[in-house]
Please model this.
Amino acid sequence: MTVISADHLQKKYGSNFALDDFSMRIDAKRIVGLIGPNGAGKTTLLRAIMGLNHVEGRLSVLGLDPYTQRHLLMRSASYIADVGTLPRWIKVCELLDFVDGVHPSFNKQQATATLNTTNIKLDARVKTLSKGMVTQLHLALVSSIDAELLVLDEPTLGLDIIYRQEFYDRVLGDFHEHKRSIIISTHEVREIEHILTDVIFIAKGKNILSIATDEIATRFHQLSVSEADLSRAQAFKPISQRTAWQGHELIFQDADPEKLQTLGNLSTPNLAELFIACMGDVR
Amino acid sequence: MNLMSTLLKRELQEHKAGFLWLPLGTLAFLVILTIAVFGAGDVDVVMHGLSSTDNNSSTFSLEGEHSASSLLSTGLTALDTLSDEKKNAFFGAVRTASSLVFYVLFMAMSIFYLASSLFEERADRSILFWKSMPVSDWQAVLSKLLSILLIVPAIFILAIAIYQIALFSIVSLAGLFKGAPIASLWLDSGLMGGWIQLIMGYLIQGLWMLPLYGWLLFVSSWVTRSPILVATIAPFIPVMLEASLFQTRYLLEWMSAHVKIVALPSISIFTNNTVEGFGLQSTLATVARGDFYFGILVGAGLIAGAIWFRRLKNDI
Model:
């Protein structure tokens, strides 16, 4: 089942394209990493998916038009924008009551139970909590909503490493429990690499690459070659090449690994390496 | 229904200071002041203009300087001898005087509340959280309007009623102490009728002011800074245009008419400090004006604009 289908999305801010003929498809029960540099269009895309932005093109999320049917969509989709969007004046218990009152599929008991595993007091005001605790609170809320889609836009921005690690552990735990689709945007590729089933690279508003993480090993290869073998390796048309400590490192897309193997040391590029390789074209 | 009540509760929680502490604080302050004036006994009170409007029979005139205690017994004794018509006028004045300060504070608070309501949520980015809930933009905007049309007036009216009961009780106790007659105070005060008029009055006055409420919500939905300033200054542009192009001032007159107190008993400072509109009739008369409905239409249009902008804009 397709959760999100986007065709030829276009969004301009002044003379800059935030989204430029962007298309993608996201299936149910996947954890998708939306990866791109700052200003690549990640937030514009995620806000369009959540019905917060109007974009040109065709966009369907859980079968709904997000911009005109946002309130219906939010019954089955949850969203965390970067840290600090929870109202600062509200008390934690008031927040729980509010979500309980407006959201048909919120499980207040579960949220309270999750919060009890943290240091967050129910009578504390959001403004007295640390950034990390606010994010914990927000995640506890959205994890207790029985939603089919969870959208996280740079959710760990400004958090220290311990909170970031814990955040993604909880997201992963939540995924295994509920099997919902999750989209996470970040420019910190390494942090989320291990939890993703799919990645989408975005740059200058364009979809640079959409791929399942388990396909990366069969489609992309990283070759370390000595100076002597460099020109022979280049004949296979690498998508990127950089000088490394010993010789050169080249990344190939859809090249024959058997042939590459004869030239040097073959490995699978990690997400960060692949991302930088793919970004080469755009820049 | 559950959704709207949750949204209204949320408004109350966020704006507890204006919605709850302002009327209750005013109530507490006025009760203490009343006790100080009538309880202390020998405070000098200077009365101006509180005399019978019928100059032929000077049965009731409190013009001049009195001590509060003497004023109280003279007043209560004099009250008993008044005609029904004059009693009504007197109690109408008392009811108005004891409720007007609440209304003025309510209006001032409402203006600031509405002008910042759709602005603040964009300024602190909490709109991204509110919009991640299954609540549509019209429901969110409506909850702010209903707070000011229904919920907050109910709290203020309750505070007024409590103050009026407290005022009459304090005067009664002080009167009993002086041996003055107090029966008329309770039998002829028309408190109940006054409360009904307040309920109708706040409601009708709110609808009469819908163009203002709508305008404040509208400005607050798109402005990038100082919503109050923009809301105050912007209307003068078309007013000045009208004045220079057509040498008329219809817009200005229409706007000022819709910020005037028309459905509640008030003291007009333009017509010699007379107290106006004691009766329910004068409150209901507003509903008979064609302009009442035209104003609602204009207000509704502005609110629709506010809803449209809230859907469109997520930040400032």
Q: What stands out?
A: Residues 2-39+99-176+190-312 of chain B form one domain. The two ends of chain B are 31 Å apart (CA to CA). The mean pLDDT of chain B is 85.
